Amino acid sequence: MDMVGKTVLITGSTDGVGRYVASRLAAEGAKVLIHGRDAARATTLMEEIAKAGHAAPAFYQADLSSMAGTRQLAEAVRRDHERLDVFVSNAGIGSQNGGPQRQESADGHELRFAVNYLSGFLLAYLLLPLLKAAAPSRIVNVASLGQHPIDFDDVMITRGYSGSRAYAQSKLSQIMFTIDLAEELKASRITVNSLHPATYMNTTMVRAGGITPMSTVEQGGAAILHLVAGDDVANRSGLFFNGMNEARANPQAYDADARKRLRGLSLKLTGLSA
Q1: Helix (H, G, I), strand (E, B) or coil at 6
Q2: Could you tell me which residues come within 8 angstroms of residue 197 by beta carbon, excluding any fewer than 6 positions away?
Q3: Residue 28 belongs to what H/E stretch?
Q4: Is residue 203 part of a domain?
Q5: pLDDT value at position 199?
Q6: Annotated active-site positions, please?
């Protein structure tokens, strides 16, 4: 895909791999919409891109740990733009951000499930009118190889909590959503794919977990950019990639009944259905 003039929203793009992807797409001539919670980081990124001679991105500040904050972001983007060529759902928190203890969102949901999964679920649906207006368009969900099956009797992990399990459950949820949304949108010329960009990239999230980085943001960014603009995936949808290569996710991702249960729960928790 020629990115010149294309409008791309990347959540969680003031730091880490999202920041790299935003910079690369701006260099390729895209109209980049960056998102984050930290205005200072956003300003630095905008200045760096402008200094390099590219159009400075637009910044949208929002806290995706609340459904209200997520809706405000969608409303702002819909107010300012008539079309959206690519939505990269990249915002997330790791297994140890904020400490190892169980945390809840403003809406009372387990925090990693809320930020890593529910916010992207809600944004995708709220931004669909803009994506349909730009079709053929793409949704890219940044997930992980770290995946844990959902226990539907305790989705919020009130028993036996661990940050790694919560993180891995949220990432599998993203992949399950990818498969369902791809099927739902197959007649709309909107592709939906998910990926594990790279293992333990040198990011704030990884370092916060006390993990020694194993790969670079450039490696992970290249994998994300492949799904954003690669011609070979232009008409492919509902897939999971490990880096540049198509892969298989946890078996629960291919369980239609489990995906149906997750979808029903997600619609209820995000207020998209009663």
Answers
A1: coil
A2: 17, 142, 219, 220, 221, 223, 224, 243
A3: none
A4: yes
A5: 80
A6: 167, 171
- CATH assignment of the domain containing 247: 3.40.50.720
For the CA atoms of the chain, what is the radius of gyration?
Answer: 17
Start-end of H helices in 200-270: 204-208, 217-229, 256-269
pLDDT tens-digit readout, 176-196:
999 999 999 999 999 999 999
Residue 39 neighbours by CB distance under 10 Å:
11
Sign of torsion, CA 125 130 132 137? negative
- Boundaries of domain holding 157: 7-269
Contacts of residue 202, defined as CB under 8 A and 6 or more positions apart, other chains included, come to 213, 215, 216, 217
**DSSP for 126-181, written as a single string:** HTHHHHHHT-SEEEEEE--S------TTSTT--SS--HHHHHHHHHHHHHHHHHHH
Q: Beta partners for 196?
A: 242
Q: Is residue 36 situated within a structural domain?
A: yes
The token pair at 87 is 């939505």
Strands 137-142 and 86-89: parallel
Kindly state whether residue 274 falls inside one of the protein's structural domains.
no
Please state, rounded to an integer, the average pLDDT across all residues of the chain. Answer: 95
Asked if 227 and 27 count as a contact pair (C-beta separation under 8 A), the reply is: no
> Max alpha carbon distance in the chain (Å)?
53
Q: Are the C-beta atoms of 174 and 182 separated by less than 8 Å?
A: no
Give the whole-angstrom CA distance, residue 255 versus residue 253.
Answer: 6
**Is 1 within the bounds of a domain?**
no
pTM reported for the whole predicted model? 0.95
Place of tokens 């992990």: 157
Distant-in-sequence, close-in-space partners of 145: CB < 8 Å, separation ≥ 6: 196, 199, 242
Tally of domains in the chain: 1
